[in-house]
Structures are given as structure tokens and as C-alpha cells.
């Protein structure tokens, strides 16, 4: 991976974070908002761990092959700050992929709004700093 491709991955990730924020700002009277937020959460999650993987390997810090390994190494190298939130995301992501019900959707939505979005945004900010 070269630095240009790493920046492309970062830019894709930043766009996903913005799109997630847009979805979180929508009116909850529309039940499709929950589905939209979950979809954008899944997309942002995938881009986040793959960006971590790419950066860690580019810098020669670690080789990672899973989200859990990426989060662990990113935490160790100071790219993310609340490792528990990121580990919790793994379970949430697995729930959204393998099952669906309205109550679960609302619970995941709340986690995205109250915890996950801030973690995604903080990671974007940190990556902007290290990729200067």
C-alpha cells in the first residue's frame, strides 16, 4: 500500500463518518431512519477497521486480519482511545448482519448515537493528525 492509496481510504472513511452523522440528525418519526443509521454504521465500521489495518501495515506496526486485531493494535498505538467501545461495536455489527428486529434496531441506533459515532469521529480526527 502506498501513501496515496492510504489517503484514498482515509477520505472514504471521512465521507462515511459525515454520512453517518447526517443519518443521525434525521427525524425519528420515520422508521426508515433506524435502518439507514444501521446501514451507515455497518459501512463506517468496515471502513474504519480496514483503514486501521492499512495504516498499521503501512507504518510497519502490525499485520492484522480481523476487526478485533485492528482495534487492539490501533488502541495500542494510540489511534483510538476507548477500546471497549470498539470491541462493543464488533458485537453490534454481528447482530445487525445476522438478525433483525425492531427492538434490536432501536438499541443499536442508540449505541451509534451515544457512543459509536463519537468514536468514529475521534478516529477520523486522529487519522487526520497522523496523515499530515
UniProtKB/TrEMBL annotation:
Does Cell wall biogenesis/degradation show up as a keyword for this record?
no
Give the NCBIfam families listed for this entry.
HI0074 (TIGR01987)
* Name listed for the protein in its UniProt record: Nucleotidyltransferase substrate binding protein, HI0074 family
Molecular function GO terms recorded: transferase activity
Q: What keywords are annotated for this sequence in UniProt?
A: Transferase
